[in-house]
Amino acid sequence: MYNSKLLVFIQTLSSEELKSFGQFVQSPYFNSNKKVGQLYQYLYKSAPNFEAKRLEKQKVFKYLFPGETFNNSKLQQLMSKLVKLLEQFWVQERFGKAIMQQQLELTKSYRERNLPLYWEKNQEVLATLLQEQNKTSNQNQNNKAGDTHYYQFQLAIELHDNIEQAEQRNKEPNLQNVSDNLDQYYFINKLKYYCKAINFQRFKSVDYEFILIDKILQEVEKGQTKSGKKWLEIPAVAIYYYGVQTLLRPRGEQAALTHFKELKQLLKKHAHYFARKEIQNMFMLARNFCIQELNSGDRSYLEEIFDLYKMEIDQQLILEEGKLSAATCKNITTVALSLAAFDWLEKFIYDYQWAIDTDAFNFALARLRFAQKEYTTVLELLQDTGEEVLLMLSGKALLLKTYFELSLDVKTEFLYEDKVDNFLVSFTAFLNRKKDTLPKHYIFYLNFAKMLKEMRKAAHYSTVKDISKLQVLSRQLSTITEMAEQTWLREKMDDLMRE
Predict the structure, then answer these.
(1) 391 shares a domain with 249
(2) How many domains does the chain have?
(3) Is residue 340 part of a domain?
(4) In this predicted model, which residue has the larger pLDDT, 403 or 387?
(5) Is residue 232 part of a domain?
(6) pLDDT tens digits, residue range 420-466?
(7) What is the C-alpha separation between 378 and 370, in angstroms, rounded?
(8) Residue 356 scores a pLDDT above 50
(9) Which residue from 271, 273, 209, 221 is spatially nearest to 245, judged by alpha carbons?
(10) Does 48 sit behind a cis peptide bond, omega within 30 degrees of 0 on the bond before it?
(11) What is the tally of helices (H) and strands (E) in the chain?
(12) Which pTM value belongs to this model?
């Protein structure tokens, strides 16, 4: 039983869900088979470890049917029924959270049971819920921006169906309203998935065919809905439209920057309109656009990335389940350091210390102290570089840079010259151990270590600095693309050649 579908499903339940599902199984409305309930109670007592020995089929069968000969088919039937109940429970749980869907189904029930007074009151409740959802934050809900327009479309259909059911032949059957809301729902989702498709094509070549997309883009840009509202006044339409245009425009083109600026303003103004994951994806799209421009040489986009991160921080979009990931913390730290926003970064690091893993916190603070040239503090913070491999790799590289900086200081050079060389050896050995698991990072950091070692040889291993050797290394540094810490290496190289 241990590797059965039933156990796989049950092991996904939280402690609260395990209790709730137990109540669900015991409800005679959903389950009238007492043996199924007993099976679940046996499994519940095995949580959360679900030991394999206790879950041997023969033991479970003996508990359920004492005195009977083991019958695998009989046990399997009970397991299948419990699986079906669990699937039904999941659906029920989702429906319980879908307030809009509940109200829509209730409105339909009132109409189908010919209760016009209650139908009218409930469709007003549904309309009010839709209005409120447009005004208040949607980020902690499962609803996506397009879902609001879906329910507006469904409400329009319900009004239409009610008129037809009442056989009010002289009354316009709400068809224009149905059509308008269908258009909005369709346009939003068409633009959304077209935006995703273009974004995906930047990383992998895939041929997509989006019928009518050109006409939709033209209509959004120039037209308006039948109610007189411009398409670009609808937040979800506008954000996905400008997301599409930002991705479609060639890099460096002025129109791309214009569309990006529009997208950025809309993200700031209407982030509450979207589900959390949905708006996070759009912020990521905007940052990726900035990174592309930055990689092509336009340093002004550092400020744009910084602004986007600030917006996400203000709207609490950087947290996932109350935690700030090491990767996000590292990215924000990198941008802030690139702009020398030291005071802002220090406040950010301490403000979010509660949400950051200890190793990630120490690393972020160490990077800040390194930029502030507080090198001995860096050594204190990086006494333990943690167990996460990429963080460990970055931490060791920062330690190596710190030892090198201290070896250049006349006050501390004799204390740290040997440490630089020894750490170069241990760092290279560490990289070789991780060669198979981190092939891309391995070569970047190995080239970094090799370059630093050669710079040491040319500048510090003899009484006379080898300028010609440094010039050769400088040219190599300009041509090797697969190298970590290039900016810092270039700075140190230029310093050595000037001295």
Answers:
(1) no
(2) 3
(3) no
(4) 403
(5) yes
(6) 889 999 999 989 888 888 878 889 999 999 999 998 888 777 667 78
(7) 6
(8) yes
(9) 221
(10) yes
(11) 23, 0
(12) 0.77
